[in-house]
Amino acid sequence: AGRLAELAAEAGRLRTAADAAQQELAALREARAEAEETAAEAVVVRDERQETAQRARRVADALAGLAYRLRERASWQAKLRDLAEEGAEAEERAEECIDRARAADEERRAAQRAADDARRTARALRAERAEIAGAPDDIAEDDQAPAASLPALREAYRAASQVYEKVGVGADLRAEQARAESDESAARAELDRLTNKVRTRAAQLLEGTDGADGPSRQAAAARAEELVQTLETRASAASEQLGRLRGEAERLAPEDGEAHTELPEDRVPADAAQAKELLRTATAELAARTDALESARTAHAGLLRAHRAAEEAAGGFDDTAALLRDLLRDTTGDEEADEPEPYSGTLEEARQAAAEARRSLRGCAGDLSAAESAVREASDVLVRHANSTRYEQVRTPARQQIRELPAAALPEHAAAWAEAFAPRLRVLTDELEQLERNRDSIVDRLRGLVESSLATLRSAQRLSRLPEGLGEWSGQEFLRIRFDDPDQSTLTERLGEVIDEATRSAVKKNSDLRRDGMSLLLRGVRAALLPRGVAVEILKPDAVLRAERVPVGQMGDVFSGGQLLTAAIALYCTMAALRSNDRGRDKQRHAGTLFLDNPIGRANATYLLELQRAVADALGVQLLYTTGLFDTTALAEFPLVIRLRNDADLRAGLKYISVEEHLRPGLPQQDPDAEPVHGEITATRMFRRPTEA
Question: Residue 269 pLDDT more than 70?
């Protein structure tokens, strides 16, 4: 039994050890898996780092190449300048060589022409020698040449030939001799006038091949002319270049002294070639110094930027130090009163907490500054509001305090003033709401009147339609009124502005704006028809009744007196019909009576009278014309003409107008289908009040 217990205990211990080993194995497997994952990640990171390193090496190589190129840039630029200068010099030398080649070519062509002339002269001389009788064919080279020139010998030969031919004629020979002597004396005189230099040069030319005969002399003269022209051209070009060089030398010459600067002895050129070489060397040195100057300027600019950055950093450090000093100064009393407790966390946590505290402190300081600015601005607004001229009549203590207290003390009394003004604010708010409701009611009423007025305008156009039988006017509307129907919201807004304007004029002193009902209605209609307004056109009465419409504003300029009267009668009839229509009597034909005082004096044309009566008959208006004229043509247009006379009652002191006679006796019979007439005028009486003495 004891052994079994030991074995059981040992088995339990082994089982526990096995479990622990199993757990340790699982932990090791997990650690191995994590290690493998870490190794895989490390491999990936290594590959990425290798790729990054390779890219960095490539970038470094590229940057090194660029740096080398930048370092060699100055030498390349110097070489480029040297090559440019050498190219310019080569171009100059090439131009000089081209000029020389051109001159040599011209000289070659001149020599070729001279050789051709010499060969031609030799052939001519050989032919001439062959023609001379007794002349030897071959001449020894050692024979001495005659002293006379070839032209002289030729002339002597010609003279001898002529003498030989004229030996038998003595008189002719003597005459010929006299003429020859005369020509010889004239030629000798002409020759004597020339200088010795000219005669010597002429003799030399005659002895040469160019003076052998006439064609040779002409060819030589032509070559001489060409040579002279060539020399003159070269001389002019050289003169121009000399003048240009002299001008450039004068322009570049120093103002004071003989030279711009003193050169050392080894730099003083001896000739033009050495001067060019020295100039090229000086240009290269100048380019090198210029590059050095640019590098120095770049370095100086970098130093200036670094200096400014250092100054800005120093300024920021000073600001931070000042802020810290202010914070330390503000917290000195608290530190003395209450010793702070040490932070329980780590150093990193303490730094983070301090950074957050500083950020919070800066945010709170910014909020405090913004709040103080808002309070100051609100105080300024309150003071300006209290000092406004609109509230000069307000004598409340609060307004007096606001005006007298300093701006810094206003926030302390703000709560008390707000509590004191709250009841008055509620009362004013209620009154403003009541005023707004009253304004809306007035605007609604005015809108109804405006819409009714616009409807009246449309009715006036509709009722002005003319009857048939008037030519082109038949069925036309005598009055045309055009306008745009306003939108309801726009109409309400514009009418509100009209009411506000009338209200402001009532408050103002010495305002001449009328505020009666008709004026308000007219302004409301005008505001409703904005911005185009209303356009009213009327038919122009003429003899042929053309449908020509004229704006009412141009009636005084376009219409005659009779046309104006006719248009006025038509407008009155339209208004009378409109009034009858508004009163609900549109079914009745009679719209009223119109008395006219001597209209025939202005409108006696028959077509105008017919038009007046036709319009009045169509609109149901009875026209009564009174006139003192006896125009039979005009009176013949009326169906009834009654002549009146003045009577007086001497006993009563009254005056009457009575019917004298009927030019057309008999009243017109009443139409049985027409509207019945319930009364008629049988007599009239006029009372004139006596004037008081």
Answer: yes
- Sequence length of the chain is 693
pLDDT tens per residue, range 479-499: 888 888 888 888 888 888 888
Query: Any bridge partners for residue 623, and if so which?
Result: 594
Q: Two tokens at 202? A: 């002429």
Beta bridge partner(s), residue 549: 539
Structure confidence by residue, pLDDT tens digits, 610-661: 787 877 877 778 888 888 777 777 777 777 777 777 777 677 777 766 665 5
Phi and psi angles of residue 648, each rounded to the nearest 5 degrees, phi first: -135, 135
> How many Å apart are CA 573 and CA 681, to the nearest integer?
23
List, in order, residues 6 or more apart from 95 with CB less than 8 Å away. none
Q: Beta strands 592-597 and 549-551: pairing type?
A: unpaired
Q: What angle do CA 224, 228, 233 make, to 5 degrees?
A: 150
| Neighbouring C-alpha atoms within 13 Å toward the C-beta of 506 | 9
In the block, which residue shows the tokens 């090229």? 280
Taking the chain, what is the end-to-end CA distance rounded to the nearest angstrom?
A: 171
pLDDT of residue 525: 83
pLDDT at 409 over 80: no
Tokens at residue 479, please? 């009055």
- Amino acid found at 686: M
* CA-only gyration radius of the chain, Å: 67
SS3 194: coil
How far apart are alpha carbons 574 and 479 in whole angstroms? Answer: 9
What are the angstrom distances between the C-alpha of 209 and each of 113, 206, 219? Answer: 13, 7, 11
Put simply, whether the predicted model's pTM sits higher than 0.85 gets the answer: no
| The predicted structure's pLDDT at residue 663 | 47
List C-alpha distances in Å: 321 to 251, 288, 314, 317, 353. 65, 49, 10, 6, 20
d(CA 213, CA 91): 47
- Strands 592-597, 621-626: parallel, antiparallel or unpaired by DSSP? parallel
Residue 283 and residue 85 in contact, taking contact as beta carbons nearer than 8 Å:
yes
Q: Please give the Cα distance from 110 to 116 (Å, whole number).
A: 10
Cis peptide before 541 (omega within 30 of 0): no
Question: Measured between alpha carbons, how far is 344 from 102 in angstroms, rounded to an integer?
Answer: 104
Alpha carbons 621 and 576: distance in angstroms, whole number: 8
Q: How far, rounded to the nearest angstrom, does the alpha carbon of residue 541 sit from its chain's CA centroid? A: 54
Closest CA to 538 of 506, 508, 572, 514: 572
Instruction: Spell out the domain ranges in the chain.
Output: 1-130, 270-317, 351-405, 564-693
Examine the pLDDT at 112 and tell me if it is beyond 70.
yes
Structure tokens at 372: 């103080």
Question: Running DSSP on this structure, what letter comes out for residue 531?
Answer: T
- Given CA atoms 525, 529, 532, 538 in this order, what sign does their dihedral have? negative
